C-alpha cells in the first residue's frame, strides 16, 4: 500500500484533509475518514488520493487567499474554541484516563475510581472515544434550560397567553384558531411564531389549569401548573433547617402487657444544606411545643451520650448537631406558638413560614423516607390512609414498644447519613466539608449557651401569683421554690406536659426547678391529668345524689318553717285564752247583752275641725 494507516491525504472532489483508515485492494479503493470529526469511513478510488506536499498546500493557500486583500475587516469577536474552558478541562482530564483504558493499559475499575463515575457512564465514554480518538469526544454536554425558563420571547409569550385566554374557550375551543391568531400577530411585529405543537401543549395545559381552578381553587391550580425555578440556595450547613410532625406508620405496644397503644407521633428537625437529620422525638402525645422542644433538645447536642445510652456507639455514628440560623415550618399551631417564636428570637434563630409547598418539602420527604422505606417494613406497620383488606389486622402483628421504635429510628438515621445523593456525597461528607479538622484547625458547629434552658423556654407557660400554700395552676400545687415568703408576687411557671412532677420558675434570668406537692396523688402526664379532670363533673356541679340531698334539705327547711309557725300560733292562742280567764268576773253567770242603740234623729252635729 502506497500510504500508511493514519496518514493525512487529499481527496479529489472532496474538501478537507482525510486520514487513511484501510485498504480495499479487490476494488482498488482506500478507506478514508475526515480528520477531526467523528465521521464514518468512506471508500475512494486510489487515483483520487494524493499525498500532502508543500506544493499542494501552497496551491490551496493561494486559492483561498484570492480576494483577501480587498475584503473588509471583520471586527466581530469569535470564540477561539466552540467549547468553554470548563468543558476543555473536563475533556482533557477524561482523555488522560480513557486513552490508557482504550489501549488496555488500565482496567475499568481503575478508570471508575480515577474519574469517580459509574460503569454505565464509563462505557459510554469509552464508546465515544473508540469512534473518535480525541478529547473532544469526551467533552461533557451543555446543560439544558432550567425548569421555568422559556425559549419564547416575552412579546411572543404575551401574544400566546392572550390568544389562549380570548380564543380558546367554550365547547368548540380550537387550537387552530389560537395558532392562526398567534401567527398573524407575530408576523405583524416581525417575530417568529411558536410551533403548532407548542401552541397545542399550551392550550391543553390551560384547559387543565382551568379545570383544577374550578374544582380546587386558583391556589391549587397555581401550585400544580406554575413553574418554581427559584429554590432556596444554601451555602453551608445549619444555614436553613425545617421541622414537621407526622404519625409513625407502625403500631406500638405496651412492653409490660403487650397491649397495642396505637401509632406514636414523630417530630423531625432536618438540615437543608447537608440533607441530614439533626434530631427527632417520638411520643404518644399530640404534636405540641413540648414535642418540638424535645426534638430541638436532641438537635442542639452531640449524640455521643445518646448512642452510648442505647449501646449503639460501637456500631453507629451520628455527627450532626448545632444551632440553626433559620428555621422554616408550615402553619401548624405547635410550630408557630408564641413561646416557640420567642425562644427562637432569643437565640438568634430566624423563623420563617413556607409560602408554598415547593419551599418546605424537604423535611416531609425525610419523614416519608423513614416511614415508607423502613418503618413500613416492621411488624405492626400500617401505611397512612391505606385501605385495609378484609380480615387484615395489623395490630395482631405489633411487637415493638415505643422505646424499640425510638432505637430503630436512630439506627435508620445513621444509615441514611451514609447514603450518597445526586452529587455523590453522603450527608456525613457534606457535614465534614463545613465542620471538623481542616488545615490543622478544628471547626465545631455553633451551639446555644444552654440546651436545657432552650428547651424550657419552649414549653407551655403559665403566668400566676404566689399563694400562701405554694404555686397553684390547673389544679396542680407546686412548691414555691425561690419564691418562699413572697406571697402575691407574679411568677412565670413552665410545665413539662410529659412529666408534671417537675416544673420551672423564672428567677434572676434562669429557670429553677420546683416539685409537685403530693405527686403520688396525680398522674405523670398532662394527657392523663386532663382525662382525669374531664372524666368527672365540671367544677361546682353536684352529683345526682347531691342534687337529691339538696331537694330533701329544701323540704326539711319548709317543714321546719311550717312547724315553727304552727307552734307560734298555738302559743298565741294559749296566751289569749289565758288572758281571757284572768280578766273574766268572779260570777260564773254570763252578762246579758244590751239592747241595740236607737238610730239618731235630727241634724247631723258639727264635727270638730269641719268648716261650714
From TrEMBL:
Region Disordered, residue ranges: 587-612
Biological process terms in GO annotation: DNA integration
Domain of life of the native organism: Bacteria
Ranges where the Integrase catalytic domain occurs: 260-435
GO molecular function: nucleic acid binding
Lineage of source species: Bacteria, Pseudomonadati, Pseudomonadota, Gammaproteobacteria, Pseudomonadales
InterPro entries reported for this sequence: Integrase_cat-core, RNaseH-like_sf, RNaseH_sf
SUPFAM superfamilies in the record: Ribonuclease H-like
Protein name: Integrase
